[in-house]
Here is the input.
Amino acid sequence: MDFIKVIKAIEFSAERHAGQKRKGKKQTPYINHPVKVVSLLAEYGESDLELLAAAALHDVIEDTAREKEEINKLSAIIEQKFGNKVLNLVLEVSDDKSLPYQERKRLQIIHTSSLSSSAKKLKIADKICNIQDLREDPPDEWPQSRKIKYIEWAEKVIKGARGVNPGLENYFDQIVKETLTLLNNNKI
Here is the structure.
């Protein structure tokens, strides 16, 4: 895979996430999230272009396809455009939206330890970016207790992803510590 495929993955993700917004007050365009995940992985030394392409696409199946037929079609497009490894990484980190919310969250805790090393790196970067978003632009409807529960849940998920990129893992710990301090001091 060459670098242009990563750019093409970002373009494809932008098309699929067009019109979607993040949950905070600012209603930031959703595409900013996968771009931040790609950037964070690169910043922490990840240069595998298939990992970076998968990072750009990591929420495409989970958040832009609903029906099984649409998921299958989208999976085939991703495989054709970006290859089997990229598709498999995207699928590894995608929740099954047909399951109830709490079950999806429980399964992330259970399954993260069995993910590939690349998927674990992607999972860590994704959770870092989610916590940063929670800190910088929290959803209005989330009370303090829900924010804290999200971070505690993310820590349980990432416990199963450790051992793949010490710098990224240390940054996750730093972001968690700083964010919990801000939450406990009612600064968020």
Summary: The chain has a mean pLDDT of 96. The first helix runs from residue 3 to 16.
